[in-house]
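Troubleshooting: if your tokenizer reports a length mismatch, compare your output against this known-good record of 163 residues.
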Amino acid sequence: MRLYVLPALLLLLLAGCASGPTFDTTGVDRSVTPRAAVAEFDTQRGKSVLWGGVILDIHNLADSTRLEVLGYPLDSSNRPQRDADPLGRFVIERSGFLEPASYSQGRLVTVVGKVAETESGKVGGSDYTYPVIEARRLHLWDKSSGRSGRSNVHFGIGVGIGL
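Known-good structure output:
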């Protein structure tokens, strides 16, 4: 019986180290960025993309929610890398209601969806054209998982002191 305890504990440990959600990336074109979607809209329209970034604003409408996002490159877990250069702004449109307290400014989000359209807006006093993504899958990253996207699990020998 004790032979089964060690493998079970190892499986639990590995499950606890899982890097994040899985995304169905079938048909996703990873070469399309928010800026490219605007610059080449005629060829990018309808393409499936996997983008992520920092939520800048949220607007709940009658039957959908729109998130304005500043896009960043994604790491191997598809988590936005805030320490990289931004890729441009985009709008996520999702049917239904999203809670503004949860999807608040500064939170990280990743989306799989289709490039649906572009829309004009303003960033400060400047005109800006946003690509609009119809969300198929939306993931809000946990606040406590840190900004770097690195694992919070560490192995070593010694004493650690946190201040």
